[in-house]
């Protein structure tokens, strides 16, 4: 059977590898519009391997994150990729947030996150000497990795197993012809497959619509902006320092993260980007912006959350506001300690009601399978998402036979 995977991010490459492992000798081609793999969400994130603390027990996020951590740890060991268990503290600033830590602890234990525990102020100081809070939840096995390096390794696996990764091949058309799916690309290629799997992140809704699927949920791009600690101040953070998340949002708030190379990132915030690939404030694509503003779910989302949106925008425009958010957790920080770092863009699915789609969402559309929502912790979960998607795709193919 021939498969085409659209999207050479970490999820798409993991899916292609899994197909080749399950069906040795089958034809698997990965198409991507960029000239390198893992260019967007895979290459623009904090590198955190999430342990599974936050996610609703029984959800795909919870199940696939925990499975994904185990698979990723094993994969990085086999391929000699740096994987550092630095540990995470989720810091409560007041008694209201402290009460929410108990809920997070229960959720983490329900999800099977190992060795999580509550810390008092002294325990937090022992773990992170420069952090302050009334209490914290410790996840000692939360890790960091370079997901871009993992993606490049997966691409090499695909080639070694007999698959092909075609870069610079933007998909512009998807048509069904009997038992085949025809894909047209911007560079004039025509690719024929028996099954197509869409793992296109920021553009997956558009490709799903090309394949005849529902244009909803729509992908709305949220830019996450970062600062980075100056090298001489990186000792302020030993591992990962996170706020207690707002349960209304899938975003985790400004946090401090030591990366595998020893640098420390501060962020991200979450501001609406004016382009699907709007990594800078000045990046504006009129078509993307009009598509966002014209989507019925957007005004409903904006009406419900405009105050939060305004606060995030102020944090984007005013460095002092951004620094103040980080100083809640590491009071010694000053504006002079932080320099701008590259931003990322999160592909967040929003339904017509204006609700942020929280869980991973995979949709079967005949011979086309679409990963419709896979934001964080998708990179952590990528190898497990691949197992799940391939099982569903192959089961759908068996039902047609």
Automatic annotation (TrEMBL):
Pfam families: DAO. Residues 4-392 form the FAD dependent oxidoreductase domain. Its cofactor is FAD. Keywords: FAD, Flavoprotein, Oxidoreductase. GO terms for molecular function: (S)-2-hydroxyglutarate dehydrogenase activity. The keyword Transferase does not apply. InterPro entries: FAD-dep_OxRdtase (IPR006076), FAD/NAD-bd_sf (IPR036188). GO terms for cellular component: cytoplasm. PANTHER family: L-2-HYDROXYGLUTARATE DEHYDROGENASE, MITOCHONDRIAL. Belongs to the L2HGDH family. This is L-2-hydroxyglutarate oxidase LhgO.
């Amino acid at each position: 059977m021939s498969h085409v995977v659209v999207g050479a991010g970490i999820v798409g490459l993991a899916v292609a590898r899994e197909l080749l492992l399950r069906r040795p000798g089958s034809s698997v081609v990965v198409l991507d519009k960029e000239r390198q793999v893992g260019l967007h969400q895979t290459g623009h994130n904090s590198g955190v391997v999430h342990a599974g603390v936050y996610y609703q027990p029984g959800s795909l996020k919870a199940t696939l994150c925990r499975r994904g951590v185990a698979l990723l740890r094993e994969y990085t060991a086999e391929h000699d990729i740096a994987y550092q268990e630095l540990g995470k503290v989720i810091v409560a600033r007041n008694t209201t947030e402290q009460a929410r830590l108990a809920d997070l602890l229960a959720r983490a234990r329900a999800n099977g996150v190992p060795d999580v525990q509550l810390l008092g102020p002294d325990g937090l100081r022992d773990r992170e000497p420069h952090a302050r809070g009334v209490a914290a939840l410790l996840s000692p096995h939360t890790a960091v990795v370079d997901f871009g390096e993992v993606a490049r390794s997966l691409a090499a696996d695909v080639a070694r197993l007999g698959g092909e990764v075609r870069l610079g091949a933007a998909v512009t058309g998807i048509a069904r012809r009997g038992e085949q799916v025809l894909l047209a690309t911007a560079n004039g290629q025509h690719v024929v497959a028996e099954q197509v799997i869409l793992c296109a992140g920021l553009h997956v809704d558009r490709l799903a619509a090309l394949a005849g699927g529902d244009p909803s949920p729509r992908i709305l791009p949220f830019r996450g902006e970062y600062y980075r600690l100056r090298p001489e101040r990186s000792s302020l953070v030993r591992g990962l320092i996170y706020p207690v998340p707002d349960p209304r949002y899938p975003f985790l708030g400004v946090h401090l993260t030591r990366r595998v190379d020893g640098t420390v990132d501060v962020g991200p915030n979450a501001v609406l980007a004016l382009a699907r690939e709007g990594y800078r404030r000045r990046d504006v694509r009129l078509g993307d912006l009009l598509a966002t503003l014209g989507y019925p779910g957007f005004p409903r989302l904006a009406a419900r959350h405009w105050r939060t949106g305004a606060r995030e925008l102020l944090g984007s425009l005013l460095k002092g506001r951004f620094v103040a958010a980080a100083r809640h957790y590491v009071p010694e920080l000053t504006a002079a300690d932080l320099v701008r770092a590259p931003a990322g863009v999160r592909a967040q699915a929003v339904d017509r009601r204006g609700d942020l789609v929280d869980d991973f969402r995979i949709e079967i559309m005949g011979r086309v399978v679409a990963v419709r929502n896979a934001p964080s912790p998708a990179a952590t979960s990528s190898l497990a998402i691949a197992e799940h998607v391939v099982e569903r795709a192959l089961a759908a193919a068996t039902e047609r036979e």
